[in-house]
Amino acid sequence: MATPLDVSQTQRERLAFLELRAFFTGELRRGDIEARFGIKPAAASRDLSLYRDIAPANLEYDQASRCYRPSRAFKPVHDFHSERVLAWLLQGFADGLDLGLKQAAPCEGPGQWVKPDMAVLGAITRSMCAKQALRVSYLSLSSGSKRREIVPVALADNGLRWHVRSFDRERQRFSDFVLTRIAKAEVIDGEVAEAESLAADEQWVRMVEMEVVPHPGVKQPKAVEADYGMEDGVMRVKARAALAGYVLRRWSVDSSPDHRLDPASHHLWLRNPQTLYGVESSALAPGFAGSAGDSAEA
User: Fold this and answer.
1) Which CATH code of 2.30.30, 1.10.10, 2.40.360, 2.40.160 fits the domain covering 118-194?
2) Structure pTM?
């Protein structure tokens, strides 16, 4: 019997797609593969035949609808991660390309209100991979437009917008720069110092474990436990110290020691707020002592 490792990477991607579509939409047609990858009917037929060799019990052909459907004995060959599946259902499975494909299933979300400049993003990611510094034009809420020298080390999504974790040469510290506030970016020749590298960013390297439970003021805590798939009434969330505050703010987790925030808008409570001691991003955690504003470059 063939296995996914016996084929090329491009064919593995097509096999993953056809399994994904069959499993999550309940139907698969040869034309779906052709439209997604721009291949000829013969190539799509070979993919279907190969997949059926790999997993002969997974698909059944529906003569009436002229499509394949997952069988009762269906067992995925590939490991599907929930975040990627949900992103596929929402945005389509097209590797960043707008192929004009129809949505697999009705699915809506709040959408992204901001879209970064691809040229700027490309410059940042290239410098990150090459370990180079950048001279950027950055628009700050406090000081307006200003030229900055930064060493990008990582990208981070806080659920609303993307940040560039970077070493700020002016302030001699690691900070978060809002991606959409960067107007221009040009490479600075020269080597990056070890103190400017990702490994030197203590807040990024440090991991914190947060114990999140239903807010004590919620009348039906079991409903909250079900919402978040809690085990024994607690959800243990690990996050980088640099991102922990963003996580707590995104999920509206009451981080006050005495759970004083309104449970109507904060269904969750951080049971171990002491884990945030020394965490710079804790300034974003709702109700945490000393929290205020946005720790990203303002």
Assistant:
1) 2.30.30
2) 0.72
pLDDT tens-digit series, residues 6-40:
678 888 889 999 998 888 878 899 999 999 999 99
> What does 100-119 look like in DSSP terms, one character per residue?
-PPPSS-------S----HH
Long-range contacts of 2-7 (CB under 8 A, 24+ apart): 2/50, 2/53, 2/54, 3/54, 4/54, 4/77, 4/78, 7/50
Give the tokens for residue 77: 């060959």
Instruction: Provide CB contacts within 8 A for 219, sequence distance 6+.
Output: none
pLDDT in tens, 203-227: 999 999 999 999 999 999 999 999 9
CB 285 within 8 A of CB 243: no
Q: What's the CATH number for 4-91?
A: 1.10.10
Type of residue numbered 139 = L
Domain with CATH 1.10.10 in the chain: 4-91
The model's pLDDT over 50-60, given as tens digits with 9 standing for 90+, comes to 999 999 999 99
d(CA 35, CA 111): 25
